[in-house]
Amino acid sequence: MIDKELKEKKDCMGCHACENICPTNSTSMETDEEGFLYPSVDYSLCIKCNKCANVCPIINRKQVFNDPIAYSCINNDEKIRLDSSSGGIFTLIAEQVIDQGGVVFGASFNNEFEVEHSFVETKRILWKLRGSKYVQSKIGDSYKQAKEFLQSGREVLFTGTPCQIAGLKNFLGESYTNLFMIDIICHGVPSPDVWRKYVKFREKFAGSPAKRIAFRRKDDGWKQYSVLFLFKNNTEYLQNLRKDLYMRAFLKDVCLRPSCYHCKFKGLNRQSDITLADFWGIQNILPEMNDDKGTSLLFINSKAGQVLFDEIKDGMMYQEVDIQEAVKYNSAAIKSVHFNPKRDAFMSEKDNLPFDKLVNKYCTDPCRQVVKSTFKDISDVI
Ligand SMILES: Cc1cc2nc3c(=O)[nH]c(=O)nc-3n(C[C@H](O)[C@H](O)[C@H](O)COP(=O)(O)OP(=O)(O)OC[C@H]3O[C@@H](n4cnc5c(N)ncnc54)[C@H](O)[C@@H]3O)c2cc1C
């Protein structure tokens, strides 16, 4: 069973494939003291079919060999681009799938501003999935839901972190011609519990519940992005990424999931059809595509990815780039972040200290990214 076969807890990246595949609902995801979800088996219901272990992308790792092509891309729709984290390419692809009668899965906020995967079938509410949410997204039942749509013949676009895409592929167990998968270049995912504490901290400070949150506002440009909270009492909090308390903790790597420090899904051989990322370093590679409103780095990883790209390319400005050059400025594509020796102390004190004191205690020395940025513009800021 998954709880016995997974050698170490820190190997689990919380993809939910084991929970989704369990025929008796005996495998469920439970939150640990750090706020991350891990599988737990109820042996009074378990029929010992071992599907939970057989589906795990860590226990059964797939090697993929593809020859990705990289592009620099900018969505022609400036409004969508400004509302997106990088060049707004996710929305362009998602709209194409919806136009063909398809359904799009991705990370959204629920009413409590927790991050979870959900699906969208109309362009009107695509905004829910737009924008990076720097919290581990809960997959929930979405693999099962995607499979139902696929079996009914609908086109499905499933987006997520590379480990979530690996979980989906293992869960499905077979390929579908009506499935498209997009992964992002992922720095690592922070604890939902640390995020919840931060939302409470901001709401207390504002004296009002939040009504809207965005991690990547471009008011001061794409590279110097800001975190925004709008509150129900019509007050607003807008802070630069380097000063926002939550972003400081994220960038210092003190609250990431343990598996993110030795991620098994890094590299250029990806399981998705298309990979999306920020094109950090664009000013050095293609200065004409650097207007500080957001430029996406896109990898085409498969034939299905090429088909999707050909369908949307008229809606964007794009240029092919050397993939090795591009990832020089985006180390998260190929390597995991270093383990911060203060991480475990930060996590064990998160329930005892107010959020500002917690971050100021553990994240005071300059971020690695800040030091780097003084040398070569701002690269690798997530
Ligand atoms: C946790 C995290 C870490 C990242 N780290 C890097 C990095 O190190 N380097 C880099 O270049 N890019 C990173 N990105 C990706 C980048 O921020 C953009 O999401 C990406 O460039 C797509 O931008 P876009 O403008 O095309 O679309 P957007 O509309 O901005 O992106 C929306 C897409 O992001 C997905 N998404 C949002 N939040 C999550 C989440 N919590 N979990 C899974 N999927 C999510 C949505 O499902 C949707 O597919 C990261 C994103 C996240 C969520």
Which characteristics define this entry?
alpha+beta, about 375 residues, 8-stranded mixed β-sheet, Alpha-Beta Plaits, 3-stranded antiparallel β-sheet, binds flavin-adenine dinucleotide, globular, 13 strands
The distinct bound ligands, ions and cofactors come out as:
flavin-adenine dinucleotide
If helices are DSSP runs of H or I spanning 4 or more residues, what is the number of helices? Answer: 15
Which overall shape is indicated by the principal axes computed on the Cα atoms?
globular
Which sequence of SSEs, written as H and E, runs from N to C?
HHEEHEHHEEHEHEHEEEHEHEHEHHHH
Q: For the terminal residues, how far apart are their CA atoms?
A: 36 Å
Could you explain the architecture of this structure?
This protein has 382 residues and is of the alpha+beta class. It has three domains: 2-55, Alpha-Beta Plaits, CATH 3.30.70; 69-189 and 257-333, no CATH class; 192-255 and 341-373, no CATH class. The protein is built from 15 helices and 13 strands. It has helices spanning 2-5, 17-21, 51-55, 78-83, 89-99, 142-151, 162-172, 192-206, 245-251, 282-285, 303-312, 323-328, 343-349, 355-362, 368-373, and strands at residues 27-31, 37-41, 69-75, 103-109, 115-120, 156-160, 179-184, 210-217, 226-231, 236-240, 274-278, 296-300, 316-321. The chain has an eight-stranded mixed sheet with strand order 5-4-6-7-11-12-3-13, sandwiched between helices. A hairpin with a 4-residue loop joins β9 (226-231) and β10. The longest helix has 15 residues, at 192-206. The protein is globular, with a radius of gyration of 20 Å. The two termini are 36 Å apart. The chain binds flavin-adenine dinucleotide (FAD). Flavin-adenine dinucleotide binds next to α5, β4, β6, β7 and β11. Flavin-adenine dinucleotide is lined by residues 84-91, 106-107, 115, 129-135, 137, 159-161, 182, 184-187, 189, 276-278, 296, 330, 332, 382.
